[in-house]
Design goal:
By secondary structure, this protein is mainly beta. The chain has one helix at residues 91-102, and strands at residues 13-16, 21-23, 26-33, 36-43, 49-56, 62-68, 74-80, 84-89. Strands 1, 2, 3, 4 and 5 form a five-stranded antiparallel sheet that branches.
C-alpha cells in the first residue's frame, strides 16, 4: 500500500525525510503532516508488508536535538510526547526534521 493510504482525508504533508531515520533499531521514512508525525517503512524480502507508526503533533511538548561521533556524526532527536521518541540519522536530515517540528510547539 502506498503512504497515501495512511493519510487522513484533508491531511497535508509538510515534510518527508529523504533518508531513513532509525527508531527502535529499524529504519523509517519520516513524514510530518499538519496533524501527525508518521513513520513509514516497507519490510520483507519476498512478501512486503507496511510498518507504520503515527503520533499526534498536538501531544508533543518538547524536542531536543544533539549530535554524537567524532568523524562520522550522527544526529539524534528526542521528542517528548506521551512517550519519549528517540530518532537517529544523518545530521542534516535530523536537523531539518527538528526545524519542521519546532513550528508545531
Amino acid at each position: 500500500m502506498p503512504l497515501e493510504d495512511y493519510l487522513i482525508p484533508g491531511e497535508e504533508v509538510r515534510f518527508q525525510s529523504g533518508r531513513p531515520l532509525n527508531f527502535g533499531g529499524k529504519p523509517y521514512t519520516l513524514i510530518v503532516t499538519d496533524k501527525r508525525l508518521i513513520m513509514f517503512a516497507r519490510r520483507g524480502a519476498l512478501v512486503k508488508k507496511d510498518d507504520v507508526l503515527s503520533f499526534k503533533l498536538d501531544e508533543m511538548h518538547g524536542v531536543k536535538y544533539r549530535e554524537s561521533g567524532k568523524l562520522m556524526k550522527t544526529g539524534m532527536l528526542e521528542i517528548e510526547a506521551r512517550s519519549l521518541l528517540q530518532l537517529q540519522g544523518s545530521p542534516l536530515t535530523v536537523k531539518t526534521l527538528y526545524q519542521q517540528l519546532m513550528i508545531f510547539l
